[in-house]
Amino acid sequence: MKKLLMCWLLFPLLAFAQLSEPKPDTPVEKWAGKTIMLIGAHADDDALSHGTLALLQAHGNQVYIVTLTTGNVGTQDPNLSRTQLAAIRRQEELAALAELGIPGEHYINLGYDDGLLEFEDRKAVVENLVRWIRKLRPDVLMAWDPGKNYQRWHKSDHRAASYLAADAARAAMWRLLFEGQITQEGLKEYMIPEYLFYNDYDNNDENTWVDISGFVEKKVNAFSKYSSQYGPGWKQYNPHPSGADLQQMKDYARSRITMKNGKAVEGFRYYKGLPDALGK
Ligand SMILES: [Zn+2]
User: Fold this and answer.
1) What percent of the chain has pLDDT over 90?
2) How far away, in angstroms, is 145 Cα from ligand 1 center?
3) What pLDDT sits at residue 261?
4) 44 alpha carbon – ligand 1 mean position (Å)
5) Quick one: pLDDT at residue 5?
6) Cα 146 to ligand 1 centroid, rounded to whole Å
């Protein structure tokens, strides 16, 4: 009985929480003139958002991709060295971004080792990210979702990247944190006003769905550039994948597209406001 009472007491709270979910004032499909910064752990983490990124770029926004690691570990091909893999991953990411209309100079790679992000010096990584936030001054930060009311399970680098991005967003707004950037480098503190968090496991926290109908082909084509990560190249890298291999990757990309009301969409947890409240 007591349990039942608790349920009834909680119900209005949960209903209110649902109602009070923030929504963008302007639908993402209508955003223009904004600076968008995406922080990911690997070249291809942005692939979950490629439709949205292509749409934003096409609508006159400036999209920047900041990737923390070089991707120099993730392969099953026994013949690739770390150096080779890092070079391949860079070239694949640039090719994917070109497909989306995002210029190569908007790709920033911070050079950390793949697979070990959570063991890096957190202060140094956050300082690095804060510098880029203060330089680019994004209107919107896109990042792995650290979780809403609980820690989301991510694989290691994604888990680290989600918190590093959120921590950097919080730190960037404080004038006296990493103050050398302000007193010596001419940067200014900055508070990011809006966030789009992405994840690849479930859709439970998504509150914003972006209609990517006009950008599906770009998303599919961009995905097919990651031939060292998907298709036969995962086990045996081929710099010139066959037409059949490319088709296999495109089919896979197409099969993973979420449909809502007959439209291709990408889902995000939108958040607005002070980064100190990111977990609320
Ligand atoms: Zn990744």
Assistant:
1) 81
2) 13
3) 94
4) 6
5) 46
6) 14
Most distant CA pair in the chain, distance: 66
Two tokens at 4? 């039942």
Return the bridge partners of 264, or none: 259
CA distance 179 to 172: 10
| Domain annotation for the chain: domains and CATH numbers | 29-274 (3.40.50.10320)
The pLDDT value recorded for residue 273 is 84
Secondary structure string (H, E, C) spanning 164-214: HHHHHHHHHCCCCCCCHHHHCCCCCCCCCCEEEEECCCCCCCCCEEEECHH
The CA 107 to ligand 1 mean position distance, Å, reads: 16
Which tokens in the block code for residue 10? 């909680």
CA 205 – CA 208 distance, rounded (Å): 9
Q: From 175, 169, 170, select the one nearest 189 (Cα to Cα).
A: 175
CA of 47 to the centre of ligand 1 (A): 9
Rounded to the nearest 5°, which phi and psi values hold at 247?
-65, -40
Element housing 2 (H / E): helix 2-19
pLDDT under 70 in the chain at which residues? Answer: 1-21, 150, 203, 275-280
Contacts of 91 (CB under 8 A, 6+ apart): none
